[in-house]
Design brief:
By secondary structure, the chain is α+β, with helices and mostly antiparallel strands. It is 23% helix and 22% strand.
Length: 326
Amino acid sequence: MYFTRSSLLVFLFVCWISPAIANDCSKEDRDYANSWGNYYAPQEARDFGRKIQRLVFDKNLSGIFSLVRGELYDGPRKSFVASKSFDEVFDESWVELVLSNDAPCSPVGWRGFMLGNGSIWYYTSKIGWEIGKIHGAAQETFENPSPGWTINKRIVHPFCFNRPSIEELSATAIKKEFYSDPGLFMGSTITSFAPMRPSWCSKDGECWRTSWVAQLEQCSAENFDLEEGVGTVWTKKSSGGYDDVYHYTILGALSDNRCSELAPHIGVDCKKSYLVSVGDYSDGTMGWYSSVGIYGFFDLPNFGPSIIPLKFFPNKNEGLNFLDKD
């Protein structure tokens, strides 16, 4: 049941002004924090949640986004809300939902802390508390370049967007920057584009060979059916639901010149490049594993037409900001 605005005022007065509840998290809350290695203080978590609720109650849009470090992982970009009023971004039902319960002392497992049944998610780290996700807000609309990435009248398969971790590669002298800017290492540190045996694979073991570079003919599996949604390409769902489901969405295009600048040592020019969101479904609590990166299409000497990951971003919004500079 939602509070009326007048009853919410009473709720906020009790939560934030009454000194009687200055330290109101329970022993169970503190014990739960201890089970998580005390990476957070329960009262700090509640106080930060109440701070967010106060800003929501006051309809302080700039104050809410001042608690976002960088850009939201899910939710509108700062540049999008900068020219809007609070009521243009959030409706009254969203406000009521966020304020309908007191801020929690404990997280929802590993997912972090939430308000309003997941309307707002927030987290803490060594550098402090921050809002990470806002669901239910007004969103930017984009015209997708196409339902999928088409090369030679053929839609690129989701398997062509490689995302292996460094541990899966046998290459040496890999720097930390390889995670975010793999294109800088193509043709320099990484000179062989052929699939390799992962470094963790035993000498006699049979392991899936991996490569950051996807040969177009090899990654476009013929025995998989694809479905096209609105701007999204999926592998068809199995009868069991989301088993072995992969998808990608084109978020925007990058100029060929700027694409080539992201792989300065590769020796050939980029033919096409997009910012792409790639995802696959994992059973259990992890659900969807998604990443956002820029991929380029190159015709590599002695290797052939290939899709290469060039740059990764912590979230979609950071990637869109990068495109805006193109």
